[in-house]
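dumping this here before i forget
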Amino acid sequence: MKVWIKYLIGALFGVACAFILPTDNSGIAAAVQFVTEIITRFGCYMIIPVVFFSAITAFNRLRETKLLLKTGVWTGGIIAASSLLLAVVGLLSILIVKLPRIPITVDTVSEIPSLNVGQLVRAVFPYSAFESISNGTFILPAFFFAFLIGTASTADAASFRPILQLADSLSKLMYNISVFFTEFLSIGMTAILCSWTIEFRATLLGGEFVPLIIMLLADFVLAAGIIYPLIVRYLCHDPHPYRILYASVCSVITAFFSGNANLVLQLNIRHGKESLGIRRRINGAVHPLFTIFARGGSALVTAVGFIVIWRSYSSLSLSIADILWVLFTSFGISFLLGGCPAGGAFISLTVLCTLYSRGFETGFLLLKPAAPILCSFAAAFDALTAMFGSYIVAVKTKLVEHHGISHFI
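structure:
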């Protein structure tokens, strides 16, 4: 059975449970939340070991084959271009289509979520390099440590061969273990979907967020069905770009309903390797970078959300300068969300409102009830970007073995 079908079955069971279980009961609701948290922790359990050992091997081989610079340029270019593209798509859609105003709330907030850039930098450079592999949420420190080991080990191949052989063996071992975890996660989707459906149902009941949800869905269909396939068709001369979309189904399902970028990373690596035929050295180096930095979905949701807040508070139109400020600020903030694998889109929106000030410091409260749905769409965009982006890098570096669609997992 295809992996995405297993996940879809688990998701359908989760939706059914949300309607069957008496979720009004506080005990049942707490139990659902607890099980969902455990499943999420389980899904993220192998991320650091997989990323760390795979990245060591990947960077070593990329540098040995003199493909490190080319891979880095293509990866960085695609991350920046995709984030800017999604921000532009979101901004154009909300400027062209005027959504109904959302009623102003009188909620207050005791603490405004923020991004501590200094803390992120400190996490990348702890006092001991070994501390970098103990952070299970922010994967950049472990990834950077692996980069140093992988690239430095090319200086004396003979001396460091035992270390590289060990890293390569551990990479394969961790990958095999992660395959088991991704298979089991299809069962865990029942709990994740149950929790998500309860929140989604509560959001829909009010009705005021339905037009916003429809717009984000339309943006996603536009990106997944037209924009990304056309880019692959043009850049890679691939006559069947929708193969990548098919390979992304499982990742997108998981990303949308969990809202967690890290939870999807192992699925992206697995589908990249077993479905799209992307070589390990690209999977190990590129996918973590997309997970950390390619958060264009958050940029799109942030731009759309801010314009919705503006129009709900004011009947005045935004100036060109303000529109450009929203575009580039949401674009810039998206690169700082690596330490927020879940909820990054809403944090980005709060930061944007705070930076804009002028009475909008707490404007994000207007969209707080819809925060889980906004983060779901952001995560789905990001999962899609990672799959299409890694495929483009693999093709441009000629590190892909094309598989027939019947062999996709």
